[in-house]
Every structure is written in structure tokens, then in C-alpha cells.
Fold this protein.
Amino acid sequence: MTPEEQRFLLVGAGLFVLGTIGFLTRRNLILMVLSAELMLHGVSLTMVTFGKMHQTQEGQAFTIFTLTVAACEAGLALSLVLALYRKSHSLDIQLWSELRESDLAGPTPDIAAETEKPVDAYENIPKLTPAGIVPKDPPRTSSSSGAASSGRV
Amino acid sequence: MMDWIQLNPMTLVGLVLWAVGILWLMPAKHGGKPRSRIPGLVLTAAGLVSFCLACGKPNSELADEVMFWVFGIGALLCGVLMITARNPVYAALWFALTTLATCGLFLLQSAPFLAAATIIVYAGAVIVTFLFVIMLAQQSGAAGYDQRSGQSVLATVAAFVFLGSIAMTLQAEKLDIEVPPVPAVAAVAESAPAAVGAMSGMPGILMNLPTEEPAKPPEPGNLLSVADADHPVGNLKGLGRSLFGDYLFAVELAGTLLLVACIGAIAIAPRREQGVL
């Protein structure tokens, strides 16, 4: 590997890492999608360099496919962002942190404190109507309750 | 590890300066007004220069050297400014500049078609779409969540440890690859129809083929994608042969993917009867 190729690979890695930082730190939905596109640029540059190293056209062919997928991803991501914006009237990603797994920690307290939630947020979220019969409590006998309590202890 | 640090101190210094510059530039509110961006910019530029200086001295021509420095430093610096911009419109514009600089690097790596396609797709379509969405969604100007960044220290440190490990791998290991010798034109020309025939031929026809040719071990890789004297790397004809020869099925799949993504985007995007944004 010549120094020429080495520095192109380093620039590609640098672009990828910058995209990673942007994706992890920024809280704007659109900026997160843009950072993902930056990561794709880094990978494209690396693949073109690899193709030149190996004297084959495959690097550039792969990059064309990457370009296609990036275009699809941008279109889908922007329509998703618009749909989310309709629901929360904000581009803040922290407003959707309620979708996280219930056993995970929430956003850091200082961020959660200053996240201003619009008053009419979440008004368009579809609600599930309760259906079916609410099951009654199973009849409790003395033995089962004793077993349950002993198990609980 | 220690050998690498002793051999390439410039890389480590550059990485550290660059990371500190990014941390300084990250939007964060400290009481009143945001801090000045100039020290962060100086730190980032110094880190970038020493990071790129550390890659050894290639014996390339002066024009190539100048273009690499302009495009490489430009891409990385515009990337830093993009991820630290407080206004998403500016971030999109910095991203357009990063795209242009990356296309310059593509040109240096002898990929002119790819550079043109990337400019058309990104600067022509993607950036414009992003700007439209920003204008739709942020009509009130800068929002509060753009003035803060979450977990910036952790993210930057983790990302730069990753970048440092990549740099260490690239600089410490001697990744000498075996470049296959350029095959003669006749060899590729005679093997290409055989590959196409094997792809499309019926099994019955294949069984009837004479089998007196000596059993040659199959050549690795895709034959139509190998660059030769007639089709050097980046040659448009060679790229077309690779795309529509070796990767024809993938090209069809990519077209289908575009169709599906188009339908999906139309279906997901909010409709007018659901109310305005």
C-alpha cells in the first residue's frame, strides 16, 4: 500500500467517523439523516480507493449501488421525518425517547429538563380501542394463595 | 501500540487536536451566549493538517499533491463544520461542500463518472430535498434543540478511538496486496462469452459441450470487472461492462429497490387530507 492510497483511506475513515459523531450527538432528526449520508461518503471513498488498489472496476460498481441505496434512504427518511413532525410538531429526537425499552435509562436529566414538549404533541397518535372481555381474577383458594405467597416470599 | 506512537507521533497529535476542536465547536449552551468558534476552528485545522501530514510523503506530482490537500482537507473541514452547525440549513450547505470535495477525491482516484453521478444525485437531489424539508419543518428559525448536543464527549472520544485504531492498522501493518497482473485482452475476451453462456445456457446444452479443454482452476473474481489495458480503472466502458455484465442482476435489484422506496415514500408521507404540517 503506497502512502498515496493510505491517505485516501485515512480521509475516508475520517469522514465516516465525523458522520458517527454527528449521528450520535445531534438531536435534530434531519441532521441525523445528513450525518448518515456523510458516513456513506466515507465508505464510498474507501471503496473507490480499494478498487484502484486491486485494479478492478468493482469498487466503483459497488459505489454506484451505494449511491442508489443512499438516494432511496434519503427519500424514505425524509418522508418518515415529515410523518414524525406531524405528530410531535418538532424535529427534536428526544421527544420520541418514550419509545425506548422500558428497562433502559432515559435521556440525561439536564436534556430531559429543557426538552420543551409542544402542548398539542401526540394528539394524532392512534389509540388502541379496548376489545374483548376483561378476564376475571382466577378464583383464589386457600392453597393457591398460600403457594403464591410462599413463592413470593 | 507504543511502537506506533513512537513512529507516528504526528497522527496522534493530529487526532487529539482534531477531537478537542470538535468538542469546542459542538453546540452547547453555557449560561448566556455561545462561545466563540475561532479557537475550535484553529484547533481542528491544525489537527487535520498534522493528521494528513502523517501519511508519509508520496512521490506524486505537484498538481496531484495540491488537489489532494485542497479536497481532502476541504472534505474533512466541511464535515466538521456540518456536524457542529447550529442552524440545520447551514449544515445542509456544508454537507453540499463536503460532497463536492469528496467528488474531487473521486476524480483523483480516477473515477470521473462516479464524481459526476454523485454531484448530480447529492447536490442536485438530496440536498434540495433536505432544504425543502427543513424549510417546511422549521419555519420559526433556530430551535432550542439545535443549541444543545447530547453526550458529545463520550461520542467524540469513542469515535476518535475508532479512528485512531484504523490509522494504527493502516500505518503499522504492511498491507501489501498482490495486484494481479494485467491479463491479456484475448484471455478476457475468450472467457467472457463462456461466463455468459454458463449463466444463460440450458443444462442440456452444457452437457453436450465437448469436454476436451483442460480443466483449468477457475479464476477468482469477476472477469468482466478486472481492469486491463483496454479498460483501465474508471474507464466508462469498463465500468459499464462490470455493471451490466457481472452485476446485471444487482442492477435490476437496485431498480426494484428504487421503485419500492418511491412507493414507500409516497405512502408514508403525510397527505393533504390529514391536515397541513
About this structure: The longest helix of chain B spans residues 112-137.
